[in-house]
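Hey Z.,

So I finally got round to the carboxymethyl coenzyme *A thing we talked about over coffee. Here's the setup:
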Amino acid sequence: MSDSIHLTDNRTGKSYDLPVTHGTIRAMDLRQIKTGPEDFGLMTYDPAFMNTASCMSSITYIDGDRGILRYRGYPIEELAAKCTFLDVAWLLLNGELPNSEESVEWAHKIRYHTMIHENLKKFMEGFRHDAHPMGMLMSTVAALSTFYPESRDVKNKQSRKMQIMRLIGKMPTIAAYAYRHNLGLPYVYPDNTLGYTSNFLSMLWKMTEPKYDANPVLAKALDILFILHADHEQNCSTNTMRAVGSSQADPYLSLAAASAALAGPLHGGANEEVLLMLDEIGSLSNVHAFVDKVKAGQCKLMGFGHRVYKNYDPRAKIIKQTAEEVFKVTGANPKLEIAIELEQIALRDEYFIKRKLYPNVDFYSGIIYQAMGFHPAMFTVLFAIPRTVGWLTQWQELVDDGEQKIARPRQIYTGHDERHVGQPVEEHAVSVAR
Ligand code: CMC
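And the result:
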């Protein structure tokens, strides 16, 4: 049996054999299927990319039906249990886990890119006191582009490596400054004696003490959450990173665009929405009524459902375990019982079962973040820090992929056929006035 598909065009009676590789036909192979020489050729129509592979990628594997997520072949459960976020970042970017020498050197390099230019700090000071931290983050990342004009040379591998280290190093600093800005607190400079997440916590919460010692359980929990959020193949923001990157825009601009995509409530903004939803529900006694509203189509159960996972989201499971560790330190978030009750009802209810709706990564992450002391507006920023690694890895793969070109989908035009302007508008207006 050959790896091809046999098609007959009933419009013309002609037959075609199209090769099938990786369970896929090439959309461009359809172009030869025409009704005549004037015909453009057959296209596919796929709004929201429900069934279109836009790239070949060796980074992240997801089997949504079996709830499997792997980075470079390693199950997410093992990475979360045994690795640090920075080692996972190295794995994603380089394809292999680092040895101990590489791991130390990598952490050192990232640490020495955590400072931001004082002018960038001033730029951030210009935001309103109550600016949404996600808006601050994405604008500041775009502004970074003006500080590193050499980043425009996207074909230069050495320069690319430098921008990648800068971005991974600087994202927590920008995020922490955005947080402090909201609270009216002075910005805290990075402390290069600390690890990635401990340093981030220090920049967030250091007050007058000379050195901030993060609670190791919280620093570890954040590190695990960062691992879980590091990459997720061709989601909305990664697709944005690739689409903008395909025009050869520099990585700061592409990443700012990716963060904008992440900010939406159906994507990374969902974690903030979950907390707002739990606030709206308020107490256990209101949970049933809220589920009825969801089933009546009046609102969504935020933190539920996924385009790819139709069984369970493996990240949600790990987050639930991590929550237990965090709550031992912080005390339980009272919203946890509302969330658990929602989950229990939803998992038994025909509406959710039929549509294969399960808790996703955002359902429990916000509850942990809030218990740790973050306000909901920061939650998506906490998603953007680790996803920076995934965006950059995907961008790097795109730039090195000889098959990729500028992203440019087709459309099916449904507007008017050619028509002509009658009386010029101005003249018409004058004649009406007369
Ligand atoms: N609550 C209630 N109904 C839902 C939900 C939900 N959260 N999600 C999907 N549905 C329903 C939807 O109305 C549709 O019903 P019907 O067939 O009767 O029209 C059916 O389930 C299929 O949904 P869909 O909209 O076709 O699914 P999608 O793959 O286009 O959307 C999603 C996926 C994640 C955008 C969607 O499930 C959603 O809006 N969830 C809530 C927001 C959320 O939690 N987003 C985070 C996603 S995971 C992390 C990330 O990507 O950042």
